[in-house]
Protein 1
Amino acid sequence: MQLTDLEKAMLDGVNGRAKAAAMDLLVRYGEAVGAERLVETNNVAGAFNASTPSVRHIVDKGFDAVYSELNLDSDEIVEIPHMAVDTWQLITGIDNDNWKIQGVDESLITMQRESEAYLGERSINMCATCTPYQVGNVPVKGEHCAWMESSAVIYCNSVLGARTNVEGKESTGAAGLTGRIPYWGYHLPENRFGTHQIELDFPVHDMMDWGILGYFIGEMVEENRPVINNVLHHPNMIKLKHFGAAAASSGGVEMFHIPGITAEANSLAEAFGPNKPVEVFRFGQRERLETYQKLQSATDRKVDFIMLGCPHNSIEQVALIAELLRGKTIHHDTELWVHTPRAIKQVAERNGYLKTIEQAGAVVMSDTCPAISRRLPKGVRVIATDSAKQAHYLPAIANVQGWFGSVTDCVEAAITGSWQGGMS
Amino acid sequence: MTLQTATPIIIKGRSVVAGKASGEALVTTETISGWGGINEREGTIIERRHELVGQSFAGKILLFPGAKGSSGWSAFFHMTRLNKVSPAAMLFTRMTTKMALGAVVTRVPAMTDFDQDPFELIESGDRVEVDADAGEIRIFKKVKQPG
């Protein structure tokens, strides 16, 4: 791989051991993918926080040891300096306020808070959400980023037209310290054109259907780049967020185009550029029903736990849940957790949504989610969620049955304790 | 006891992570999720609709198309190394950043860009020697014992 003089100097340790370790990882990684060079980035979003029991034995050696092992893949414990470029912490393991409800041991929340203080001193911004684009990190078109979080990456590439691969803990750790990432994959304009065409025969409109469509497309195209044609109802951020998260879960989709809607495709021709569609798939009522069935892993209708807010909810979604819960009480055998970024939770509190949701007996969580934390209320056997992504992952992670449906069906299940969801 | 053929089949490919390893092959034509798809403490596949669900890849020569799903892929395979339940080697056919970074931090020999289709030639249970330094895989097919 070709390195600039500055990059060579970093590799040689001229700027300290941490940058040398970071550059060493970027070179190993860049050569593994076959990149010819690195590219400068000033927008890094990764996972740095120490918040799980599995890292405690490393924390005992100090937070430099955590960063060195888990964020740089370095055998040597290096002293971590201030980040070289703008760097953000994505979702983390523990809700700093609701940790007791999560069943977190006090020593673990103390560890997370100490970890955050360490990272904060090094200017890693604690947005603590899977949706940095909802709370102030909105890259501009063409901006080179180094982001983790598959649902954020697909949004960044597709909706915003900024450029990132799906990075990992180690590569974002190295990028924050060097401002570099391999120039490969989605950083190159020629790799961003569509490959597969999806023709909509069903007028996809509500959030649930956008989630189902994403899940269907991910299974069909795997890690390729779908172009969705014949979209009759203009989707908003919430729907595209759900769609992308689903497509990135069932497949490995990192970028899609919707002509006239997403950043790099004003037309079908622009979406495909020099490519011809490899395959054309159709999404109609049959595909919609089949995919809805695939997302159900439950048979027992008695629901113990409802999870809303994957990816983290926007203020409009929190407002809708508050409206559905107004004056109601959730079933005594059922728990409902609503997940939203901490900054949005503050707005929800100011608006009174938080109070309405809490008066119904539900909890508004921030910073984390059950799949990331692997923490659910005790004794949960059956869950329900409005997220195709969560319906995909949580049953495997937590060994529970899962229902998937609309937010209205989920809130209804929380109130009655019974799953009666369905689709027309 | 499983018998193997004496003469290996040889496939050439590109080294992603250098090194040598040998062991029993575990083959899937389905991509694998890291976060949410494996148990990193036990080295097993947990994705509920995966054809290898419940099976262990620890110490195996893992042949699969590549990585899918969450960006926690590398971190979870990184943890399989720290927990000593990583695959012995990774052979894959579709390069992505998740796959490359995951192979790099798992620090086991890894190869891709093969001159023949490995899925045609390698089955679970075959004995496979991976020499990423030489860019070569040697396959000793399992032989079913008579009776």
Protein 2
Amino acid sequence: MRKLLFQNLLRSPLTIPAPAPSEAALAELAAKVDQAARKRLGRSLSIREVDAGSCNGCELEIHALNNVFYDLERFGFHFVASPRHADVLLVTGPVTVNMKEALERTYTATPDPKWVVAVGDCGRDGGVFAGSYACVGGVSAVIPVDLHLPGCPPTPMQLLQGLLALLQAQDSSQGS
Amino acid sequence: MMSAGSLQIMLNEGQPVAEHRPWRRVVVTAEIWNALLEGLAGGAWTMLGLWGETGMAHLALREDSSETMIVASLPCPDGRFPSVGRIHPPAQRLERTMADLVGLQPAGVPDHRPWLDHGRWPVRHPLGAASPPMGLLPPYRFLPAEGESLHQIPVGPVHAGIIEPGHFRFTANGETVVRLEQRLGYVHKGIESLLNGATIDQAARLVGRVSGDSTVAYALAFARAVEAATETIVPDRAHWLRALMAELERLANHCGDIGAICNDAAFALMLAHCAVLRELVLRASAACFRHRLLMDCVIPGGVIADLPADGVKTIQGLIAEIRHQFPPLVELYDNTASLQDRTVNTGFVRPALIKQFGCGGTIGRAGGRAFDARRQPGYPPYDQLEFATPVLTESDVNARVWLRIHEVEQSLSLIDQILQRLPAGPVRVELSSPGQITEGLALVEGFRGDILVWLRLNADSTVSRCHPRDPSWFQWPLLEAAIENNIVADFPICNKSFNGSYSGHDL
């Protein structure tokens, strides 16, 4: 183990430079984010991921945000185990009817101020599962959504750009 | 004891269904059905699937001794069929699902609880004679555990990690788990209903999203079932590119799983390094096929596009990099006693249970069951490739880690061979249009185990009925057995060593 750790000390990091925030996400946020919320959240955001019926594709790419290439934590984002600790709910899936109540209860359990980010084409409108008896179809049909990050699944880079837009939205408000 | 080939003989009594390929489907009487169940309960054959449609129950079987695969169909005009689960427990959850979705009632079972239907859908029996719901279902009763000082721990459906939802009900005595009962169905999306009437293109996209981590394997199983039904001959190069994608998918998932299992023993270093390998595979996949997870790349008739000019070089570079980085990680796992302390003897599954459930994938092969669908029934190009099927017998978390390690090595070798011998030629063909109702069946080895897809196509080539069966159906119940007498704190590592699919199971 020491050898491996030592090698890593000498090797240049694999982490990519921070990308620019997504323009589309910034535009969506500008219209939605409450000024007071921005001030209270600061630059450090705790994220609770909720799978509301995803195929697991989005989860795989959200996981990838934690690998050394994307290293989400360097920006102040941190995944937490409980909605009680969360500022942001990252919700995937077309919201199955069987998960609807669990999603509502998770939302209620998250303290204000909070933001909801709907991830993936399913989270936007149900995606390929839209129209099923077993799907509500889109996160915003169940809880208020502040930001949509489409894709099937969105790549870690797209997720990162979207989440960085969240930070930028706060920064610009603090300056004002 | 039944002799080899007795499955064939038994089914000769039934009525064969025309246009079902490549294996036979036979309509049987209740008498033959019951005889089949006895052979199943006696271990003469393995259940590959059990599903229903209005007025008909289908049972897919495999006789290991003769390597025969077959679908037996029992007409049930009164909506009932002799229960398989009554004498063969692996069928119980599948039967509860048939009752929920189709309205077919298994006769003679003690457990009438619904499984996927939580009493919330706006419709009852969506795949059968759909009717409005009956109103609130009675509260779900978990199975009892009796004894002194027992307490229950409910977990989920929303879990602590970035994972899929499901409910686990533990009954524990102090730290020791006395009973675990799963309750799944939270991510049921009604995929089978969406498939009814879908065009082949729409259906391929849907089946490719049954379980996102196995999108290549599902797309491949669906494509092979369609090609069997329509008697479409796929060009050679497409077979080889499909195998390339399937092995990339296996590589990515196994690398991710090895790291994640170690992380559940708080050994984050392995996760960090294995996640790098996984990311490298996904990046190479995206560079070659324009999708990191390879969604919608395998299509009925072939593959969506050929490798780009520098594709072979990109993947060869990837293989060289993993061959360089992976061995030190294996050595690290092997030499870290504190890590092995968590994995050795943890989450043991009795090999007899694995055989009874026909449990495939890493769980099956780490517990002595050598089944690998790439070999048997087999499909091209694996018959032309050299690879070993690693099998271990310890059947604990450690064995499941090692099995993944060995399979990573095999996949690297397979990818090497594929790149060296990739035949030239087209990569897709138009599907044949038989102009009549046809049926197809396929069994494909995903990273998690064997995936079955059965389908019936209408004369206009739309889907009449399609049933994808995830390997997890025969793995989730064994997790309940694996955790018994382990401590609650070892559940995450046991669960991760299984890595069952919620979405694939809940459908």
Protein 3
Amino acid sequence: MEEVPHAIEEIKEKMKTVKHKILVLSGKGGVGKSTFSAHLAHGLAEDENTQVALLDIDICGPSIPKIMGLEGEQFLEDNLGVMSVGFLLSSPDDAVIWRGPKKNGMIKQFLRDVDWGEVDYLIVDTPPGTSDEHLSVVQYLAAARIDGAVIITTPQEVSLQDVRKEISFCRKVRLPVLGVVENMSGFVCPNCKKESQIFPPTTGGAEVMCQDLQIPLLGRVPLDPHIGKSCDKGQSFMIDAPDSPATLAYRSIIQSKCVCESCEFTWRRGQKVI
Amino acid sequence: MEAAAEPGHLAGIRHIILVLSGKGGVGKSTISTELALALRHAGKKVGILDVDLCGPSIPRMFRAQGRAVHQCDSGWVPVFVDQEQSISLMSVGFLLEKPDEAVVWRGPKKNALIKQFVSDVAWGQLDYLVVDTPPGTSDEHMATVEALRPYSPLGALVVTTPQAVSVGDVRRELTFCRKTGLRVIGVVENMSGFVCPHCAECTSVFSRGGGEELARHAGVPFLGERIGAAPSSLYSGWSDLRLPTVPEGEKNGSSWLLSSSSSSSRTGSVPLDPQLTRSLEEGQDFIQEFPKSPAFPALFSIAQKILNETPAQLS
């Protein structure tokens, strides 16, 4: 581990051209981290003057290449670059059966050796949990400073209990929490238009948790079956279904201004940060 | 049995089943829980070992949060969920002082705890030990497979949801099973379709066609699209849950998306059911309370398949 401080310095140098670094976290898997990361990247990159980079550090389950519709390519638009271990695998069946140290080495390489160039936003999509990948990315970016983390959850308590752990992780490693996004929040039947709770918020959902922990709730994104379809096709759902309530929710979150204890942060370029 | 050479606490366990998936949030813990309940209803003694150290869900699903693990002469006593002690649990959730505390551990520490879980828990006699895992193919999985190998685990149930993004992760998980020599008992497609409680329309919430893609990939026939709602009358006779063996030919075709001559590619699909989510939130016995749910026959048929594969009774 003695090369870590060295790597931190190198990464600090490398990240000088990267203005904002945002982690997307959740305690539980399958709550929509990659979907949110992808849409945040798409949304920010809609402004052609904003340079966006999306880094997928889910080494064992990289979803970003599929969701972004990329096979082997690493640049989607002129102003949106993507990096994932998925690009380094030779076949879709290739499993990355790696223990922690090897995963950490990969993350170091992603941060230090990828030529990110001039970037306004680096969005880092993470695997579920609070282990090697999370510790490593926070450690490697320690000197370069991370703006903060957006935490994704679904409304049910089984997810919230893991998210509370994730927030306790953020506090332990002094990572500012930019806010919480409640995903899969209500489902509107496309046939009868009535709403159901597929993942019922039996303990009040993200709203009550955010009040308890005094962190901002950035918004709620309803479950829309088109989101999964767009992700499977590798297209931006916000372009596929511009009028869907879920698109509006994404847009409002992307444009939202988050004020938290330790930082004042705005997504949009040109506005004040800190 | 190889275990005889090393008489650990797993010596009294007849069958070990791992529940795996590449992707998170596809329902590993749900399937583990319901499988355990279904096996219990069939008169079996079941243990669940939760090796998801950073996000343990099993204690909540059995409404056992806050229960403590005690030490006895022979090791850790698992947490029993019922008077009859027919289901016992072990999870890192029982070892934490505060439920919101994060287990911020790197691999080696996780590996050490998993080894301890395998060697130090006094399970006693069990028909089945279900091992619930975190998503991925990393430390926990390697540690678990390594530690359990001397006890010849029966195999793995691999859980997916229908969308291509999830199926991609499952393909990687199948590679993991192949590389580690773990037999795949079956692939379970969870959350396949949501039946609107207002109008009974079935929507593919998490995309569709994932099972078909997997079928094509595994080189097996795709027998049909999974439906959501099953006619409840078909299953009402099953409510006593001492279920008769369903003959192979009569097995509800809709709950078995695929059947295959190859050993590794059978799929049972479980539709998305908010009642199921709710009951797991509240730690109720879903199979007892909601035998008419569209998810029930699918869950039952998965348990039945396991029972069929392991006819031996605990003496």
